[in-house]
Design goal:
With 104 residues, the protein is α/β, with parallel strands linked by helices. It contains 4 helices and 5 strands; from the N terminus they run βαβαββαβα. A 5-stranded parallel β-sheet has the order 1-5-4-2-3. The protein starts with a strand and ends in a 7-residue tail after the last helix.
Length: 104
């Protein structure tokens, strides 16, 4: 199985309806500066299935603009090809540009 991309509006809908968990694969300093409130931080260097939030929901990965998110999705799928994974298109940068809520 492969991962899919998801846009900010769809992700916001999923989060509001408790249909997805969000994983931020940026570094701690980036997360501390600004983050999406529902996101769980698991830096790319530490990404593995054991570090994901326990859930039967869709798993959405995000980073700053999407590149690290793609790497994280590839790494997770190499470990478990059955995951339902999504990469946030444009990362947190697109989320902010869309005017969606963040914590600073």
């Amino acid at each position: 199985m492969s991962y899919k991309n998801v846009d900010c509006e769809t992700l916001q809908n999923w989060l509001e309806n408790d249909q997805a968990v969000l994983v931020d694969v940026r570094e701690q300093a980036e997360y501390d500066e600004v983050n999406i409130p529902q996101a769980t931080l698991v830096p790319l260097g530490e990404i593995c299935c054991d570090r994901l939030p326990a859930s039967d929901k869709k798993i959405v990965i995000h980073c700053l603009k999407g590149g690290r998110g793609q790497k994280a999705c590839d790494a997770l799928l190499a470990e478990n090809s059955g995951l339902e994974l999504y990469n946030l298109q444009g990362g947190i940068s697109a989320w902010i540009e869309s005017g969606l809520p963040v914590e600073k």
